[in-house]
Amino acid sequence: MRLVQLFPGGSAPAFGGYGESMSKSDDIGQCYSCNARFSYFLVHNGFNDSAYAYCDTCGMTSLLSGWSKKIPEGVELRIHQVISEAVEPFLQKCFCGGSFKKGASPRCPRCSSVLSAVEATKYIEANAPGARMGWRWQQDWQGVYCITVEGRVISDNWKEEKEVVG
Ligand SMILES: [Zn+2]
Ligand SMILES: [Zn+2]
Known about the structure:
With 166 residues, this protein is mainly beta. It has helices at 45-48, 121-127, and strands spanning 27-30, 37-44, 50-55, 61-65, 100-101, 145-149, 153-155.
């Protein structure tokens, strides 16, 4: 699947520098535990007006649009970054049985090792056109950028209101 860029209520931001990476195909990253290569896609949650989280077990990415009508009442979703802990209980579990958590990280699709956000600098900056013009990778899994690994992403996986306990 391909992520759709939405610019609700305003004009599209001017693309240039790192923005170019949004419109091309997936890039190739590497796991430094098992050396497997994998495809990944860098998502700018500012352009998307979204927040995100990773599954604490398999590393799948959950993208949460700030414009979704499924956001439960009373949930304060702060976009452009990883979710807050207060949002975690409102999200459906991952297909693998894990949970989407603020502190979780993407994982290698082969050995399931947590991908280091610092080690990822090597391939993310090498693949980002804007890096030549001074753009730098954020070096964490909580800032405005997130990645999806091998296309593993779920969107707006909010629980139905009646499922939320406590
Ligand atoms: Zn690996
Ligand atoms: Zn999972």
